[in-house]
Amino acid sequence: TFIPEQFVIIEFERLQADAPDSINDFIDYYEGNFIGRPIRNNRRRQPRYAIAMWNCYLRLDQQLPRTNNSSEGWHRALQHSARSHPTIYESIKDLKMEQHATSIMAEQLQAGLMKLRRRVKYERLDEQLQQLVSSFHLLTRDMYFKRARALFYF
Fold first, then answer.
1. Across the chain, how many H-helices and E-strands are there?
2. C-alpha separations of 18 from 31, 37, 140 in Å
3. Are the C-beta atoms of 52 and 5 separated by less than 8 Å?
4. Tally of domains within the chain
5. Which of 18, 61, 80, 108 qualifies as a FRET site for 90, CA 20 to 30 Å off?
6. Is residue 92 part of a domain?
7. Which domain of life is it from (predicted)?
8. Residue 114 CB neighbours (<10 A)
9. Is 113 in a helix, a strand, or coil?
């Protein structure tokens, strides 16, 4: 989500009240896993995945990555460069080579000799999302969510 943590449950309940019956199963799943089911005294159980774990609002506000795609790409490259069923010594050698290559790339990035490339489409989306989260307290909720939907073509 692209809203502060303290508003997630309030906005979920608002969406839940307006949701058509056809998506009740999805709402139920989402509530159990990401929001927490209601219990006594107007409280909720702990969700399977804490709101802080999946909420993107602070990450965008602090200009941090929203996804772990770069980690996935590095892991995939490591898998393809390593051998299948290596001995422990071969694994150590492969990890040392990878560490050396990563150190060189970090030095090149710091020196400005190399720049990480991202698709323009995703750079633009990140900029728009950062502008959106910075306007959270300035817009009405309806306008805020309308702009968020527009960014993802909903």
1. 8, 2
2. 15, 18, 18
3. yes
4. 1
5. 108
6. no
7. Eukaryota
8. 13
9. coil
Are the C-beta atoms of 48 and 36 separated by less than 8 Å?
Answer: no
Identify whether the C-beta of residue 55 lies closer than 8 Å to the C-beta of residue 40.
no
Dihedral pair phi/psi, residue 113, rounded to 5°: -80, -15
Q: Which two tokens stand for residue 43?
A: 């409280």
Among candidate residues 127, 130, 132, the one with its CA nearest the CA of residue 144: 132
> Does a structural domain hold residue 94?
no
Q: What is the pLDDT along the chain (154 residues), one digit of tens a residue?
A: 899 999 999 999 999 999 999 999 999 999 999 999 999 998 999 999 999 999 999 888 887 777 777 777 777 877 777 778 889 998 899 889 889 988 998 899 889 888 777 788 888 888 999 999 999 999 999 999 999 999 988 5
* Domain membership of residue 7 as a residue range: 1-55
In a domain, residue 37? The reply is: yes
Q: State the pTM of this model.
A: 0.69
Phi, psi of 38 (to 5 degrees): -65, 145
- At residue 154, the pLDDT reads 58
Cα-to-chain-centroid distance, residue 128: 15
Measured in residues, the chain has a length of: 154
